[in-house]
């Protein structure tokens, strides 16, 4: 079924949606994005995603394309027009189309480009992968130094996913200076006893919206949270490991570089945090 997508104010059949070849998102990867999951036809953690969108835009000096109320209305319209019960909404804002290619940013008369589309994913919450867990490999983190900005420069993360696929596993975790930064498209954690360990927020990693909520729920559930780097060896010796992202919620990680973590099955902490996260976020969904 053809989707209805959004381009700069218009709702169009996907085959009719067009963006200029001069758009800086296309030529320079000069754009940012957000992915919001949808459960029961409602938006999960939408305020967090809006906040980070503004931060990403601000760091790059790209103007907000419209008001937050308009963005919420647009997300809701896409859910309705595409009858999404479970899935995701992808939103992208670029610096727009200056009508030619140049390294110099265009002036303010060039308006940002705003596009969005839905992805229908039945069983997003009840994903089979959450029952078996992810296997991951480690690869060097050779991304740029502003990973805190959610830009559309996703070539290396995409290559990392392909390296995982080639190795017969589900994902790659990036390693820099001997410590894990994050997954290709998720934040990375290990569990030791009652303690959840995850890298602290700097420009080395994306400040995950799911991460913020999961750590809040973890603290409320009396887990200890330690924000610091950890090594692959430490992860392999941990009781459990997991990843978080809007698209996977809390995903147990059961193997790293061929070594089983804990029992080699999804552990009780990751499983419980996934349940709490889904319960709480469904209640707060917009
Ligand atoms: N880290 C990276 C590199 C990501 O690409 C993502 C999501 O796409 C995340 C972490 C998780 O962020 P969020 O929880 O906001 O989806």
Summarize the structure.
The chain has 286 residues and is α+β, with helices and mostly antiparallel strands. The protein has eight helices and 15 strands.
Keywords:
alpha+beta, D-amino Acid Aminotransferase, Chain A, domain 1, D-amino Acid Aminotransferase, Chain A, domain 2, 2 domains, nine-stranded mixed β-sheet, Aminotrans_IV_CS, amino-acid biosynthesis, branched-chain amino acid biosynthesis, branched-chain-amino-acid transaminase activity, aminotransferase
Secondary structure topology:
Layout: E1 4-7, E2 10-13, H1 24-28, E3 31-39, E4 42-43, H2 46-60, H3 68-81, E5 87-94, E6 113-120, H4 128-132, E7 134-140, H5 155-166, E8 171-176, E9 179-183, E10 187-192, E11 195-198, H6 209-220, E12 224-227, H7 232-236, E13 240-245, E14 249-256, E15 259-260, H8 268-284
Parallel strand pairs: 7-8, 7-14, 11-12
Antiparallel strand pairs: 1-2, 1-6, 3-4, 3-5, 5-6, 8-9, 10-11, 10-13, 13-14, 14-15
Helix pairs in contact: 6-8
The structure holds pyridoxal-5'-phosphate.
Residues 182, 185-187, 206, 208-211, 244-246 line the site of pyridoxal-5'-phosphate.
